[in-house]
Amino acid sequence: MTFAVSFQKVSRHFGAVRAVDGVDLDIRPGEFFAMLGPSGSGKTTCLRLIAGFERPTAGHIEIFGARAEAIPPYRRNVNTVFQDYALFPHLNVVDNVAYGLMIKGVPKAARRREAGAALEMVKMPGYGDRRPGQLSGGQRQRVALARALVNRPRVLLLDEPLGALDLKLRENMQEELKTLQKSLGITFVFVTHDQGEALSMADRVAVFNDGRLMQLGTPQEIYGSPNSRFVADFVGSSNVLPPVLVERCAGQRRWASLRPEAVKIGAPGRLSATVVSRAYLGGATRLGLDVEGQRINALVPAGEALPAEGETVRLGFADEDLHLMEPG
Amino acid sequence: MSAVGTIGAAGPSDAILPKRGGWRGRLADLLWRRPGLLLLLMLMPPVLWLAVVYLGSLLALLLQSFFSIDEFSGLIDRSFTLKTYGELLRPANLDIIVRTVTMAALVTLAAAVVAFPIAYFAARYARGKWKALFYLGVMLPLWSSYLVKVYAWKLILAKEGILTWLLQKLHLAWLLDGWLALPVVGGSSLSLSATGTFVVFLYVWLPFMILPLQASLERVPANLLEASADLGATPQQTFRNVVFPLALPGLAAGSIFTFSLTLGDYIIPQIIGTSRLFIGQAVYAHQGTAGNIPLAAAFTVVPIVVMGLYLWGARRMGAFDAL
């Protein structure tokens, strides 16, 4: 199988800083791939390595089977939607979108037509004559998307494209991006630090930390069976139980993750806890519990009985919900 | 909870604080209520200085250009006439104008070409110590006297100067001799040629091109260059389509300096170059020894008109679009 993007032992060091450290990664053609991690985890550097803005210090990168580490960005059929959009301030919207076509030497009439079609695709028809400075954040975002897609790239890179948008707009854009990706069939590589965004949009997610790839899998695998304390902690609101508690529940001295919705209050369990806080979330209530100094969150669906703050309760969970990780 | 309680316990009398004492407090209150007054106070000195003193005297000068001089008595005839402007268009005077404008244009062009790489380096790559070094390098020449610099150049460019010596050591003296043998740009030595005048103008005005250019390049976000490359543009294409258009306001600002400073200067061409006059020298001669104030005034109108045309042209070409 030819992968859309393939990293083989790729490292990018900046002096002593290992921004990306020995990453092996395969992105399948046509998939919606998310790179997830906290800031400084190396996910953006990985994206820049695919775009060609950075060159690996070690390892190989292939794009659709072709060796790419020595190819400059302008010779890669890969386009990027930048975090702050990077629209050209001296060009109007249509010239921004048509920039790539202009560089390729497409005649003016044809590139205006194609840019117009691309603007229509991102639901921005009629905005062609405006300057980027006259647009809102969400509109700039769409223009940046059109500017990348009009070149029909083999891989589209998106660097935290929704980070600057407000919640409502972000949710709309998430849906639209997903629909767009399905209809175009282009490989999307999406960088985000928002785990909810990664899980809801991507076909597969790569979780990064400290320049290393921690786990790669479907959202279900990443969320349901994190392979390390870091992934459990970072992805979702999973509780991480220390080896001492896990040994008492499961008999093994290992770290384990436990999703808050799996925690049953008042069930005959092996742990007792004090309720520290209660936060009403609408569909459920989140309880902050203290188990022998260890903080554990539990989600109680609306309608179930709620213990009061300061009350001591018993905790239980099904054995299969306790997900064992590295030994402690 | 208790901390919040202490903060929230303040009495209602604390909602509005008492007046600050003295005239300073009253002045601050007054200026806050009447922001227009503050603006007026701030703008008064520069407006008085610029508009009244400077523009006023400039207008008086312009007015002089519509007077004429009585050729027999040498007295100024204070009646409106275009005779002086007719005199300005005589071949000898027109020659001075063409020479000066050509020199100003060439100096500006050369300054832009020389300044761009330096400004680009300073804006894109120089950080910390290197940036300080850049500013020092560019500004240092401005700290020393202009006359000292010009005379230093006279020594450098003289026939017995270091430049000739260096070229002789490199066995390139024939190149210099060949250049000096050319008409218009040549002369008996570099310090007595139009080339010498050009070189010194370029040196003296270069910082005025570098600094605005560097400022405008600094404002070009690095990710625009990446975006351009990402969209398929080679570095040359990126320069033409992104860097250059965005640097144009800085280039325009710098060129206004180099162009107008060259147009008006009368010291450099007097010390270095041929005996052919530049506008500044003509003004100096006419208002001084010749006592022909109207013609001197008419000559000073030329740079103003040329700069006006230049700015209008730059605007038409979109030099200020990215502002």
Q: What secondary-structure arrangement, pairings included, does this model have?
A:
The complex is a heterodimer of chains A (328) and B (323).
Chain A lengths: L4 E10 L2 E11 L4 E5 L6 H9 L6 E6 L2 E2 L10 E4 L11 H5 L1 H6 L3 H14 L15 H13 L5 E5 L7 H18 L2 E6 L2 H7 L2 E6 L2 E6 L1 H6 L4 H6 L4 E3 L1 H8 L3 E5 L5 E2 L5 E10 L3 E8 L2 E8 L10 E5 L6 E5 L1
Parallel strand pairs in A: 3-8, 3-9, 6-7, 7-8
Antiparallel strand pairs in A: 1-2, 1-4, 4-5, 9-10, 11-12, 12-18, 13-17, 14-15, 14-17, 15-16
Helix pairs in contact in A: 4-5
Chain B lengths: L1 H7 L13 H12 L1 H30 L3 E2 L6 E2 L5 H6 L2 H34 L4 H15 L2 H12 L4 H8 L3 H8 L13 H25 L3 H9 L4 H30 L3 H4 L7 H9 L5 H24 L7
Antiparallel strand pairs in B: 1-2
Helix pairs in contact in B: 2-3, 3-15, 5-10, 5-12, 6-10, 8-9, 10-12, 11-12, 12-15, 14-15
Could you provide a short overview of the structure?
The complex is a heterodimer of chains A (328) and B (323). Chain A is an alpha+beta fold and 328 residues long. Helix content of chain A is 28%, strand content 33%.
Strand adjacency order, main sheet of chain A: 6-7-8-3-9-10
Order of helices and strands of chain A: EEEHEEEHHHHEHEHEEHHEHEEEEEEE
Query: Which term fits the overall shape of chain B?
Result: globular
Strand order of the largest sheet of chain B: 1-2
Determine the CATH topology of the largest domain in chain A: Rossmann fold
Q: Biggest β-sheet of chain B, characterized? A: 2 strands, antiparallel
Helix count of chain B, per DSSP? 15
* Parts with pLDDT < 50 across at least 5 consecutive residues of chain B: none
Number of strands of chain B: 2
CATH architecture of the largest domain in chain A: 3-Layer(aba) Sandwich
Average pLDDT number of chain A: 91
Q: What's the average pLDDT of chain B?
A: 88
Biggest interface, chains and residues, is: A-B, 24 and 19 residues
DSSP, total strands of chain A: 18
Structural class of chain B, please? mainly alpha
Helix segment count of chain A? 10
Low-confidence stretches of chain A: none
How many domains make up the coordinates of chain A?
A: 2
- What fraction of residues of chain A sit in β-strands? 25-35%
What is the CATH class of the largest domain in chain A? Alpha Beta
The outline of chain A comes out as globular
